[in-house]
Design a protein that fits this description.
By secondary structure, this protein is of the alpha+beta class. The protein has 2 domains: 38 residues; 46 residues. The protein has 4 helices and 3 strands. The protein has a 3-stranded mixed β-sheet. Strand 2 and strand 3 form a beta hairpin.
Length: 102
């Protein structure tokens, strides 16, 4: 999580004291927002913390996919389906697509 008290600094300061900033990134695992002329320009983060973030996003995406699959299977069990040709024709009509056009 971004620390608004200590997690924002200028790119100039980061360039001047890179090793100190890297030490802090490694110690805290928290990202930093670097600014140019007072506006946020880039976020830097320790590689290990970034890896954790990527893994968490991957887990979340996988959970969402599994939930969608479960929902689809429940629809099939409940009979909330229609033949693919019927669904494709309805979509073609809805979006003004000629289904016979190649």
């Amino acid at each position: 999580m971004l620390n608004l008290e200590n997690g924002i600094d200028s790119l100039t300061n980061f360039k001047r004291q890179t090793s100190e900033y890297l030490d802090r990134l490694h110690e805290t695992g928290e990202p930093m927002v670097l600014t140019v002329n007072g506006k946020a320009q880039v976020v830097v983060q320790d590689a290990a913390a970034y890896q954790k973030l990527v893994e968490a996003a991957s887990r979340s995406e996988r959970e969402e996919t599994l939930a969608a699959i479960r929902e689809g299977l429940a629809d099939v069990r409940a009979g909330r389906t229609k033949p693919a040709r019927t669904a494709l024709k309805a979509l073609a009509k809805k979006y003004g697509i000629d289904p016979d056009e190649k």
